[in-house]
Amino acid sequence: MGSPASWQNIGRHALLPEARHDEIARLDVIAHLNAYVAERLGPKVREAWDNRASGDWRTRHGREAVDRYEVAEAMANEPAYQVYSLVRRNTMEYRQLVGRQIVGRQAETLRDRARALNASGDTLRLDPAFRPPRYVSAVEQHLMRGGYTAELLEDDVSNPANYDAGLYATIGGSGGPWSNAAGRALVDWLRREYPAFVPQRILDLGCGLGHNTLPLREAFPRAQIVAIDAAAPMLRYGHARARSLGVDDIEFVQGDAADTQLPSGSFDLVFTTMVLHETSRQALPKIFAEAHRLLRAGGLTIHLEQPTYRGLEPFEQFMRDWDGRFNNEPFWSALHESDLPAMLERVGFGRDEVFETRCVAPAWQCSERQEDFGRAPAWYAVGAWRAANGIAAIG
Q1: Residues near 380 by Cβ (< 8 Å), separated by ≥ 6?
Q2: Are residues 337 and 244 in the same domain?
Q3: In sequence order, what are the residues at sequence separation of 6 or more whose Cβ sits closer than 8 angstroms to the Cβ of residue 147?
Q4: Could you give the CA distance from residue 107 to residue 113 in angstroms, rounded to a whole number?
Q5: Nearest to 81 by CA among 53, 105, 55, 101
Q6: Stretch 49-72: mean pLDDT, rounded?
Q7: Mean of the per-residue pLDDT values for the chain?
Q8: Which residues pair with 256 in a beta bridge?
Q9: Are 239 and 217 in contact (CB under 8 A)?
Q10: In a domain, 135, yes or no
Q11: pLDDT tens digits for 235-264?
Q12: How open is the CA angle 14-19-20, to the nearest 5 degrees?
């Protein structure tokens, strides 16, 4: 079994909560448990399906299971899957518990650090009158109490700090010390596939902490970058984090990805990284339509997610659907069964402008089976050019 990176190797910045010896040990236990789930327990679930459950289903019904729902029914009483789910769910609950313990004792200190870093300039723009969409405010994503928008004290950054610290442990450092693998994967794809594409204005929809925004700044130092999110705590933390890392020119703006209030035709690149599954059936086409409205002629929109279920065998659909059933991801299943290229066409992109691809973080290699059904630094991507074969802002 591979050994995940210790939390001691996480990238340090002024907003990262300080963890004690025993807390680091607990975070490392979480990382090792997740590796064990992926590399030992996951294959046991596959064995149970191949060697017993699929045959039992075939005997009872006279046919093969045809979708993830039937596989779930067949696997419900399989000890291998019960153990897999128990351990995977408990690692997430434990991650949240440890994160709350670490952040709770320094919540005011972290808040004050963020205030100091955010005090000058106009690159952090929060709107006290803004009401986040319910798909953000009403969900405790990843079992995080209160979710992204929770504020336990004025100008709170507690949950973002918890998220930042815990994410590294959950993925065992596979996203790199800064947990920015999706942003790096996007940059690598752009450089490889479209080296002449040099966007001058970039929009990150649903930026969260800005983990995946900053690689775009490094790749395109002259671009104007706007990062939008619905959650004020995430923006406070992300803006302060960026400043502590020496990046002070990204605009962090509170707003709705489906209705940004930004001028039409004002961006060359509009992107998301692991955001769409945290939206809703009603919001998703509006977000795609907003991206279409915001793009200049020749501009690009691209969205990194986990693979859609289209074309996957029922067992893999079932395994990849775990987050939708057990990790407080209410739109996960619906998103991954959606035809995203067709949706992009419906909001105005031409069929020959829409594409699907795969983005992989640089210097990372693995087989498909090692991907842990969603936690490796490799993504399905769907996108479209605003004009057929257009290249925007060639530098």
Answers
A1: 304, 305, 306, 307, 308, 356, 358
A2: yes
A3: 136, 137, 138, 139, 140, 141, 159, 231
A4: 10
A5: 53
A6: 98
A7: 94
A8: 259
A9: no
A10: no
A11: 999 999 999 999 999 999 999 999 999 999
A12: 140
- Per DSSP, helices labelled H in the chain are 21-36, 42-48, 54-61, 68-75, 79-104, 107-118, 134-137, 158-170, 181-193, 214-219, 232-244, 283-294, 314-320, 322-326, 332-336, 340-346
| pLDDT tens sequence across 203-230 | 999 999 999 999 999 999 999 999 999 9
The CATH number assigned to the domain holding 270 equals 3.40.50.150
pLDDT, tens only, 334-353: 999 999 999 999 999 999 99
- Could you tell me which of 254, 95, 80 has the C-alpha nearest to residue 164? 95
Contacts of residue 97, defined as CB under 8 A and 6 or more positions apart, other chains included, come to: none
Q: Is residue 146 part of a domain?
A: no
Q: How far is CA 178 from CA 11, 13, 34, 261, in A?
A: 5, 10, 19, 30
Dig out the tokens for 52 from the structure: 């017993």
- 215 in the same domain as 163: no
| pLDDT surpassing 60 at residue 389 | no
> What tokens appear for 45 in the block?
């679930």
Number of domains in the chain: 2
DSSP character at residue 276: G
Which residues, in sequence order, are bridge partners of residue 271?
204, 302
Residues with Cβ within 8 Å of 126's Cβ and at least 6 positions away in sequence, in order, are: 232, 235, 236, 254
Task: Give the tokens for residue 133.
Answer: 């969409």
At residue 23, what are phi and psi to the nearest 5 degrees? -70, -40
Q: Rounded to whole angstroms, how far apart are CA atoms 322 and 149?
A: 24
For 209, the domain range is 181-385
**Which run of H or of E encompasses 296?**
strand 295-305
Contact 187, 215 (CB under 8 A): yes
CB distance 310 to 342 below 8 Å? no
Domain-embedded: residue 176: no
Q: What is the pLDDT of residues 269-284, one digit of tens each?
A: 999 999 999 999 999 9
Which one-letter amino acid corresponds to residue 69? Y
The structure tokens listed for 112 are 């004050």
Q: In degrees to the nearest 10, what's the CA dihedral of 373, 269, 221, 234?
A: -60
How far from 181 is each of 137, 209, 375, CA to CA, in Å?
A: 26, 14, 11
Are 308 and 334 a contacting pair, CB within 8 Å? Answer: no
Give me 304's structure tokens. 């990194």
CB 372 within 8 A of CB 359: no
